[in-house]
Design goal:
With 294 residues, the protein is an alpha+beta fold. Helix content is 22%, strand content 33%.
């Protein structure tokens, strides 16, 4: 049997902050001396942005909608894009996304989830830009009349979303704008498994800026998968809601009809019945109101 090494034979380890400050590297420098001589300009550095896929149910609860802004300047001038901006030097990516969300919608304390890091070297023609994409879920009742275009945008518009295995369509009826992509499924090897993902192929004259079509696909796919095992759907209904309206949220995201009895058995332990009634958006009739159990 191999003898265990004694403590005397082990290399000295001191990873406490004091120990690190006192250590010297191969050049004989302490950390303070090393940092004093360090030149960040020796290395190329990418800029970092955040973009937000802001999702809400439409007024009739027949589908999802997303907020897009029309770009005022190059690159992709006049094209529609997800709202976002550069991360400032003194803030985290999450703080930047929260700030941009408030600037675009006036909303705070909204569900915000990091989706994906978009890092293709050529994704932005200006320079090397790494983008951290977020998804925000907003109750429709909270966004009415609150959106506004920032200084770098011509206007901000809500677009209805139609998403199937074959198409991604974004449509604004007031301006008669339709942005359409055909979707192709491609397999990617990841370790020993194959992962399927959608790849968008533009088939309309209007197009989204940058790689924002891929961000939207990533978000919609994430939401569809996550609704099966989490309570994320409750972020898309008002604070007080009817069960028919909540069921419609699930149906829209999953892309299929659900049996009323099975649905209520699934969510009944997650909601609290209120002693009052309201008008269901989907049925346009009086129905019991509920709240999410927090």
């Amino acid at each position: 049997m191999e003898k265990s090494r004694s403590k005397e034979n082990l290399p000295e380890q001191d990873c406490g902050r004091k120990g690190i400050l006192e250590k010297r590297n191969a050049a004989g420098l302490t950390e303070a001396e090393f940092l004093a001589s360090y030149r960040p300009s020796d290395y190329e550095r990418p800029s970092v942005t955040v973009d937000m896929l802001i999702l809400a149910m439409d007024k009739s609860f027949n589908g999802l909608k997303t907020l897009l802004i029309q770009r005022k300047n190059h690159p992709y001038i006049d094209c529609y894009a997800l709202p976002g901006g550069f991360v400032e030097i003194d803030e985290s990516a999450y703080s930047a996304a929260s700030r941009e969300l408030e600037e675009e919608t006036g909303l705070k304390n909204i569900y915000l989830e990091q989706l994906y890091t978009m890092s293709q070297p050529d994704r932005d023609p200006r320079m090397r830009v790494i983008d951290i994409a977020y998804m925000a879920l907003v109750p429709e009742t909270k966004v009415e009349g609150k959106v506004k275009a920032g200084d770098d945008a011509k206007e901000a518009l809500w677009f209805d979303i139609r998403f199937t295995d074959k198409n991604l369509i974004l449509h604004n009826e007031d301006k008669n704008i339709e942005i359409r992509y055909n979707l192709k499924k491609k397999s990617f090897k990841n370790g020993v498994i194959k992962v399927e993902n959608y790849v968008p192929d533009l088939v309309s004259n209007d197009a989204l800026a940058f790689d924002h079509s891929q961000i939207i696909l990533e978000g919609l796919t994430r939401l569809k998968n996550k609704i099966e095992y989490s309570d994320v759907a409750f972020n898309l209904v008002p604070k007080e809601f009817t069960l028919p309206d909540l069921q419609r949220v699930y149906e829209v995201i999953l892309g299929k009809k659900l049996y009323k009895t099975n649905f209520r058995e699934k969510i009944i332990d997650k909601v609290r019945l209120l002693d009052k009634k309201g008008i269901s958006i989907t049925g346009n009739k009086s129905s019991a109101l509920y709240k999410y159990k927090r």
